Every structure is written in C-alpha cells, then in structure tokens.
Amino acid sequence: MDARILRRHPPAMGQAKGDDFEAARLTVRLDAIAANYRTYCRMTGPCAVAAVVKADAYGMGAAAVAPALVQAGCDSFFVARLAEGVALRKFLPAARIFVLDGCQADAVPALLTHRLIPALNSLADIAAWSAAASAAKTTLDAVIHVDTGMNRLGLGPDELAILSGQSAKRLAGLNVVLMMSHLACADEDSKMNGEQLSRFRQALAMLPPAPASLAASHGAFLGMEYHFDLVRPGVALYGANPQNTAQNLMQTAAIVTGKVLQVRRIDRGDSVGYAATFRAKRPTMLATVALGYADGIPRSLSNTGAAAIHGARADIVGRVSMDLITLDVTDMEVNPGDEAEILGETITLGEVAASAGTNEYEILTRLRRMPRVYEGTTGKDS
Ligand SMILES: Cc1ncc(COP(=O)(O)O)c(C=O)c1O
Fold this sequence. Notes:
The chain is an alpha/beta fold. It has eleven helices and 20 strands.
C-alpha cells in the first residue's frame, strides 16, 4: 500500500486557542429552535404550543434549550421521565412541566415537591394522584392520557368507560388541565389518523370538559381539526421536517462537525478501514475525520453517508469506526484542521436519518461525547 500521510493536525497545546482542543462538536442554534417554536405558534394559533424536551431536549441540552423556549413564549413543557422533570424544574421555576411516564405511587413525593404535573395513564395513576391531593388537602393539576390506538400508554377503552361512569368520584381533588392522546402514524397519510381523531373526540365527550391535545410535530400539519387547544411538537423544534415535502419549514438547529485529522492519498485497489469494506477504484484522496460511533454517528453510515467540507459533499468510504470516519476528498482542497460537517445545512438531518436507515429522533438523541456549543441569543427570531 502506497499510503502517505500528507499533514498532521498541527497545533502544539500552547498554540491552540480555546476550542481548538475540540476535535468534534455539536453546535446547537438556540435562535433556530426559538424560530421553529414560533413557526408552530403562527401556524396553529390561537391554539397553544407546548415544547417536548424529553431525552435532554432530544440531545440538544434541556438546560439551555428550555429557557430559550421560555423566552420565545413557551410556558408548557413535556418530559418523559420523572427525573427529567425534576432536573428541568431547576431551570424553569414557573413553567408547567408535564411528566409523560405517569404517576406510579412512588413518584408522588417528587411530583409534589417539584410541582410537576403527571400524565395519568391508567386508573391506578388517577387513584394515586387523587389520593395525593386528598392527603395534601389540596387540588392537584393533572393530565388524563387516553389511548386511541397507539397501545403504549394511556387509558384504554375499558378504563375510559369506568372513568366516564364515575368521573366525579375518581377525579376527586384533581383539576384536569389537559386531556391528551398521541398519534401513531402522524408522519404518514394513514387512515389511522382519522380513526384516532374520532376516538379522541369520543373520549372527550365521555369526560368532563377540559382542554385537549392530540398533535405533536407531524400531527399539527394534518389540519386544524387535529390542533384542539394545545399542540406539543418535539423533533421539529430541533430541525426535523414535520412534513413529507422537499422544503423544510424548520430551521436547522443541530450541526455536528469534526476536524480533519489527516489527509492521505491511496492507490487504486487500496482498501480503507476495518474489514477493508471499501476498495479504491482510482487513486483517491482520503480525509480522516474525528467523528465516530462513540460520538453517536451511526455505524450504518459506513460506505453510505456523506459529510461536507467547505460546503462541498464528500462520501464516507469504509467503515465508521469508534472515533473516526474516512471521506473521499479526491479533487477537493482539504487540509488537516478543516471542519467536516456530518449533520447541518448541507447534510441535513433528514438525509442523515435516511442514509443511516433510522429516523431523525434517533440521530439527534444518540449524539454524545462531543462538547455542545450554543449559538445565538434567545428571544430574537432568526
Ligand atoms: C406523548 C408524546 N407527545 C409528543 C411527543 C413529541 O413528538 P414529536 O417529537 O414527534 O413532535 C412525543 C414524542 O415521542 C410523545 O411521546
């Protein structure tokens, strides 16, 4: 093999300035997240818009993202886990924080201490939260989650019928601030959307009147009848396209870059990376970039995905390894220290997800190891 190291990544530690130490980074554009939130407000108004910030704001860092959303006007947040709600309360003293996991009896003290509002997913959840209200001699806010076909969380038809017949007794001490359900196929043109909508309407008619919420990022684009009183987008706030359209209304919020560590030339017939899965069909210039599956870059991008250097696309060749990817940069001007974007404006979230054979949610929430850099001030539209 006639491989040749052209240049090594330069700076001695004394020369490096600040973030030169970072071989890779996740840049989170807070202004873009705020702008995406406002897009939902404009589109669904007068319906209210909550923000889903579970899984550490889909990997973007809830401690920075949630306050930025508050500045954009958001006053209601959804998390999955109780621990996420407890952590979020530190940054959001006044906002409503809903916990989707529910109200297991052992969750009650933390829910009360941190003023978290559980989504009550079963009659048992309702009983536990109602008992907490009675013990505290107070009224507690609550969300009732009705299952309309997802078969994951929420009251099924049998429990709903029981609750409907005994709502005064079972909801004693509870102030139902939201009735919610969740769509299974909102990102598709599926008849299941209409079926869930009609089941949700039936459920609402069976219980005392309360504000209602059905749609998340994609569901909000199914039509006004899906909006009810509150929509609760998550993934679109972070830049995913909530429509099956070429044009994405959402702004790019997450950018992942890694530095080129080495540039080298290989000959026709030479292989690249573990298991030698790529063999050069011509003399090829390679750039080795400091990003790998330990940073959350899917291994399934091996020989499939792409990155961009100075806005120009370069194919990933060979396997994605733990710390490195290798790009074909033949005919490109690339030097060690240049930044390769594996996710951002050129290599979009949708493209990365499609190339990796997964969805945008998994791409975002798997990002790790690299430092997050926050860009943009909150409170201004961009
Ligand atoms: C109950 C519920 N509501 C809202 C959301 C947000 O969904 P999306 O990220 O698709 O907007 C989720 C996410 O999985 C969810 O589970």
